[in-house]
Amino acid sequence: MSDGVGLISLLFFALPGSSAVFTQEPTDLVVVAGQPVTLPCSIPGYHGMVLWLRDGMALGVNRDLSGYPRYDIVGDHSKGEYHLLIQRTEIQDDAFFECQAIQAAIRSRPAHLTVLVPPDDPVIVGAPVVSLRAGDYLNLTCHADNAKPAASIIWIHNGLVLSGAIYSKTLLRDGKRESTASTLYLSPSNIESGQQITCRASNKAAPNGKDASVTIDIQHLPIVNLTVEPQPVLEGNLVKFHCATKANPPVIYYRWAKGGNVIPDVSGDTYEVLVDHSFFTEPVSCEVTNTLGSTNISRNVDVYFGPRMGAEPQSLQVDLGSDAVFKCAWTGNPSLTIVWMKRGSGVVLSNKSTLTLKAVKQEDAGKYVCRAVVPRVGAGEREVSLTVNGPPTISSTQTQQVLYGEKGQIKCFIRSTPPPDRIAWSWKETVLESGTSGRYTVETVSTEEGVISTLTMSNIVPADFQTIYNCTAWNSFGSDTEIIRLKEQGEEEGEDVKRQPARSENNRGSDPVHCS
Ligand SMILES: *[C@@H]1O[C@H](CO)[C@@H](O)[C@H](O)[C@H]1NC(C)=O
Ligand SMILES: *[C@@H]1O[C@H](CO)[C@@H](O)[C@H](O)[C@H]1NC(C)=O
Ligand SMILES: *[C@@H]1O[C@H](CO)[C@@H](O)[C@H](O)[C@H]1NC(C)=O
Ligand SMILES: *[C@@H]1O[C@H](CO)[C@@H](O)[C@H](O)[C@H]1NC(C)=O
Ligand SMILES: *[C@@H]1O[C@H](CO)[C@@H](O)[C@H](O)[C@H]1NC(C)=O
């Protein structure tokens, strides 16, 4: 404090013999800004000049405080009362006050008037709604300005006071009031979207505090559940895909794709479709977008279907002794069973998609069936043929019947892959491959099953029964021969012997063709 009293002392002139004394002097007081306050000063019997000083500055003489509209001198003048009434205290009233009786040369003790100022309403930066991204820390600042003494700030969440805020204050230019700021740093695990956080500023002038609140808005990418119903489902039925989403900010749009290709014309949270087998392998995805980005979820559908053929199995032509491998690429759901069988035989050769025949024999030639079953859903089958390259095989009845005097025919049935290069009939000294020689004619006909060579005798004579007929066929792999005898029709047939399959011990279900 500057000693203003000394300055006023210059005006001082003493009245000798004066015995004036203060019966009331101002005392230290505390007042909340805006409230009235009265500083007492009584000097009974004194009739001289009375002066009030504030921080050493004279406010005015006697009752004339015209420069200070909020100040009045009150009390009974005749009793020497010069109380200073401050109507509505303000911060500049926060000062030392002194009452002086000039002619009596006395002054009161300096009394300190403390003016308390409540903080302005607190302000949370960013209020009323503070948005942050999920997982980010919340960083809130609240300030409560222009308070005396500086406001203290607490943060309240769910009725509890939070700790750990960082507090700072700055003194205003008036040297008396202070502004306070508090920064709260909160872990994302401690807060949920929609909750409120309150900043409460208080000081002695506002003991109950003043509140400001902020609502926390936690934003996140869409959280998506993609449901598929019903499942499992039989091919051809209706399936509903539903993309249940939680998003903040809200969803802008949905996009659907199947197997990576966007499905046009579907833009809502639901997609309904009649499913086929492709839904089993091509996932359906739902992509949900808000301003923060997109979430994309995929689902396969458990579609029951099948069996369906991938690559068609191929028929094979292989050389005698090599391996034959057939493949049947069935797919189905639920898992299918496959069997490979030779047509006409009930023997299961394989229960895998691949059938391997090792070192094939000529009897292995024929048709093979690959059959697939998806239990309770469906079945399918494909047929392929195996052709075995090898020497010809001839089957024929070794004894053929004819009638005297009539036209007679003997036939030779040749199975041969590749087809025979040459077929020859020989008997006695004659060899005939084709055409006519005397009574004899050779004709060769190709059928699907093989080649039939027929030796025709225009009319049968007894000598024809005495000889043997040699039918021989050749191809690049070798030859086969069949010796045939003639027998008069009507004779006992006890000698008839059917030619047996060469390797009847094999169980590949060979299917020999007999010919007569
Ligand atoms: C909180 O925000 C303030 C102002 O934006 C910044 O200065 C401060 O570094 C932030 N605090 C943290 C811990 O991120
Ligand atoms: C997703 O499903 C789970 C479990 O069924 C559930 O708890 C969650 O709330 C769902 N989310 C949405 C976005 O529907
Ligand atoms: C979702 O992601 C998958 C895989 O990246 C993509 O193939 C598909 O097209 C996406 N879905 C949408 C609707 O964009
Ligand atoms: C397939 O064949 C193997 C071996 O012959 C056998 O053990 C298996 O049980 C068969 N599986 C089916 C489904 O028939
Ligand atoms: C049948 O004819 C062929 C070819 O002419 C000959 O090689 C073979 O020895 C003959 N067979 C008999 C039993 O005569």
Automatic annotation (TrEMBL):
The family this protein is said to belong to: Belongs to the immunoglobulin superfamily.
InterPro entries: CD80_C2-set (IPR013162), Cell_adhesion_signaling (IPR051275), Ig-like_dom (IPR007110), Ig-like_dom_sf (IPR036179), Ig-like_fold (IPR013783), Ig_I-set (IPR013098), Ig_sub (IPR003599), Ig_sub2 (IPR003598)
Membrane topology, as annotated: Single-pass type I membrane protein
Primary localisation category: membrane
GO MF entries: cell adhesion molecule binding
Positions of the Ig-like domain: 16-114, 122-215, 222-302, 307-387, 392-487
Protein's organism: Lates calcarifer
GO BP terms in the entry: cell-cell adhesion; synapse assembly
Region (Disordered): 487-516
Pfam families cross-referenced by the UniProt entry: C2-set_2, I-set, Ig_3
Keywords: Cell membrane, Disulfide bond, Glycoprotein, Immunoglobulin domain, Membrane, Repeat, Signal, Transmembrane, Transmembrane helix
GO cellular component, one term: cell-cell junction
The protein's name in its UniProt record: Kirre like nephrin family adhesion molecule 3
Location of the protein in the cell: Cell membrane
